[in-house]
């Protein structure tokens, strides 16, 4: 029986082109997410010249800008950052749900990692906690996820398909 092979990303082979798409709404929180993401990318060896930052009005506009970046720039990964804070109306559910679903669909459509760093929280206090205080910085977390996925996908490119490997072993 053939052993099960394992593949996982690392934070060593993360070089590539990254696009950070940022919602300006709630910028007092989101600015810290951007700082965390950029700092994390650069600390792990990504050249600052390979990081583009695109600003949009709010989380609702993130998917369209992400889609355009994927089509035009063709980055190795996109990092979407924003903050949707629950209010007294159903607006929160529509914006957060629509944004998250669209980002997930785009990731699959373009076969490119999209790290979702869009905070969906109940209060401004929760947002601040996730933007660099008590609960860490979710911008940093999103950048880490993007880098790990870039590394992982490079690993797929290096692996020989199983069918080809089996044919090589049989001399076919």
CATH architecture group name: 3-Layer(aba) Sandwich
Beta-strand percent range: 15-25%
**Which sequence of strands runs across the widest sheet?**
2-1-3-4
**Helix vs. strand class:** alpha/beta
The Cα radius of gyration reads 18 Å
Which fold name fills CATH's third level, the topology?
Rossmann fold
Key phrases:
single chain, 172 residues, 4-stranded parallel beta sheet, two-stranded antiparallel ribbon, 6 helices, 6,7-dimethyl-8-ribityllumazine synthase activity, riboflavin biosynthesis, 6,7-dimethyl-8-ribityllumazine synthase, transferase
Kindly describe this structure.
The protein is of the alpha/beta class and 172 residues long. It has a single domain (18-170), classed as Rossmann fold, CATH 3.40.50. Helix content is 49%, strand content 20%. It has helices spanning 27-43, 62-72, 91-110, 124-130, 138-158, 162-170; strands at 18-23, 51-56, 77-85, 114-121, 131-133, 136-137. The protein has a 4-stranded parallel beta sheet, with helices on both faces. Helix 2 (62-72) runs parallel beside helix 3. The two termini are 20 Å apart. Forms an icosahedral capsid composed of 60 subunits, arranged as a dodecamer of pentamers. Its EC number is 2.5.1.78.
């Amino acid at each position: 029986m053939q052993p099960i092979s394992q593949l996982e990303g690392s934070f060593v082979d993360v070089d590539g082109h990254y696009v950070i798409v940022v919602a300006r709404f709630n910028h007092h929180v989101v600015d810290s997410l951007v700082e965390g993401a950029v700092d994390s990318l650069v600390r792990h060896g990504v050249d600052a010249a390979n990081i583009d930052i695109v600003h949009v009005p709010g989380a609702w506009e993130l998917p369209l800008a992400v889609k355009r970046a994927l089509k035009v720039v063709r980055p190795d990964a996109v990092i979407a950052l924003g903050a949707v804070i629950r209010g007294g109306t159903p607006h929160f559910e529509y914006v957060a749900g629509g944004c998250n679903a669209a980002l997930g669909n785009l990731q699959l459509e373009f076969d490119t990692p999209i790290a979702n760093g869009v905070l969906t929280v109940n209060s401004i206090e929760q947002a601040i906690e996730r933007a660099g205080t008590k609960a860490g910085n979710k911008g940093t977390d999103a950048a880490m996820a993007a880098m790990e996925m870039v590394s992982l996908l490079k690993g797929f490119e290096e692996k020989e398909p199983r069918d080809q490997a089996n044919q090589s072993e049989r001399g076919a």
